[in-house]
Amino acid sequence: MSISAAHIGAVIRKELTEFRRNRLIMATMGVIPVIFLAAPTAAILVLKASTPSVQLDRGVGFLLLYLQLIPVLIPATISAYSVAGEREQGTLEPVLSTPVRREELLIGKAAAALIPSVGIAYLVLGVFLAIVQFGASPVVAAAVRHSPELLAQVFFIPLLAGWAIWVGLAVSSKASDIRVAQQLSVLASLPPVALTLLLQFQVISSTLILGASLAAVLLVIDCAAYLLVSKLFDTERLVTGAKAVSGMAGPAR
After folding, report:
1. Where are the domains of the chain?
2. Tens of pLDDT along the chain (253 residues)?
3. How far, CA to CA in Å, does 179 sit from each of 24, 77, 150, 186, 187?
4. What is the pTM of this model?
5. Are 121 and 159 in contact (CB under 8 A)?
């Protein structure tokens, strides 16, 4: 049986509707970008043209890497809600009883988390670049435009978001509490960010070849993570977990 694009689209629409109804998710998608945009914007605007080039390049690189937290934190929080949230609301079993296949459900939930996360990350990056272009000194703006971290930001946003989503779905498939699932998802999604910090502080020498290699490795990891998470999306196990949580939450007799 082939995967149905119509089924995947239905799952995506359902998930996006659920996101709009959830205040915590909407707050996450609204507050996190503002917080992680404000700090680098304020820092970049106070940089002076007279700043030594080495110090300027390091500062710009750090601020751009700081923005990479957005495509990690937002999808980790959203995807952690995907299963645990439905367990808590008691809607997981009806969803699993529909004719949607496991792969279609998984891809739909992952895509629903990926679309707004990547869109927000690119939007924030675009706003940051616009502010730099029109508000910072020409020397600082040129340093940002020619920074290798800017190119890395463009390519790594969907890769980092993909990693965070698979981690969030894996945690969510096992967790029964939404807040615990979201906290664990965020923590488990941070290792790639730690690697970018090592690059920025020159613990590891940053080169174009290394960046391309890391992107390729992260792409392979994302594909392997999909295969791993698809095994966790066993319908019988998810239904059993949903019934167990429902039974624990039911009234005592």
Report:
1. 5-242
2. 578 888 899 889 999 988 888 888 888 888 989 988 898 888 888 888 788 887 887 788 778 878 888 888 899 888 888 888 887 777 777 777 778 888 888 899 999 999 999 999 999 999 999 999 998 888 888 888 888 778 778 888 999 899 999 999 988 888 777 888 888 888 888 887 777 666 655 556 666 677 778 888 888 988 998 888 888 776 666 655 544 444 444 443 3
3. 10, 9, 33, 11, 12
4. 0.84
5. no
